Fold this protein.
Amino acid sequence: MQEDSGIVMLEPGRRGAPGPKVPPWIKVRLTQGKNYTDLKDLMRSQTLHTVCEEALCPNIYECWEARTATFLILGDICTRNCGFCAITTGRPTHLDREEPARVAATTKHMGLRHVVLTSVTRDDLTDGGAEIFAETIRAIRREVPGCGVEVLTPDLMGNWEALSTIVEAHPDIFNHNTESVPRLYPRVRPKARYERTMELLQRIKRQDPSIITKSGIMVGFGETREEIRQVFADLRSHQVDVLTVGQYLRPDLDHLPVVRYYPPEEFLAIKEEAQALGFLHVESGPLVRSSYHAASQIPAVSSS
């Protein structure tokens, strides 16, 4: 990053990695106020992780200052090694059965009205961590009645019984990200399958039509606009309600390079194309991530 008077320029690594020059619209304002520091201290005291930190989210300053965060459950070590993700890859050491209670207590302490739960991928677990997701949803509902709960899950290796465990806990929004176009899956998501992602999203809706389904992609890997349109069409054919589209930013030199930075006006055009397909809500912009403005999406969808 380059810092200048509180403005942080987000770069694809400090060591001169090849790729296009970082454009001026890829920047965030550094705001480490009282809410930010309070939230950081709270997460440490409860031994909790956030995807905001682990995945180097560019919106952490804005969101934490607004007292919103995305809890990262099931530890901070992922069993997969996707080409875009900054989360540590390795062999997880344990399963924390007390984590759901701590997440719920922290949600209550923060006074949250909408919570986003995501996780590392735990292919080492038979159910992929589905039971911990379900327990966390139920714990939050007990501690904070009326709180909106959104989950962003891995693909569970296509374990549909495990998927049902999470669906039966009835999150308000169920998100599973598509991430990229099918042609680029071998590089972007080498252990994932595009068809499995689509089937997962479809099964959620079939099992519980009242759950809002959501997915997202990143652009900048070398996909074409026609490929993007086809992904949108596939998502709508599988009854996905909410879509997020953001710019891929390279965490470091060990990850895939950025092929292209999309200008803000192109994100606007992409949003208009997606809305024309019938998505109930679309977030599209250079710094948009899965959980960005998540709390505002339930009323937006409900009023559609």
Observations:
- Residues 130-143 form the longest helix (14 residues).
- The CA atoms of residues 163 and 187 lie 26 Å apart.
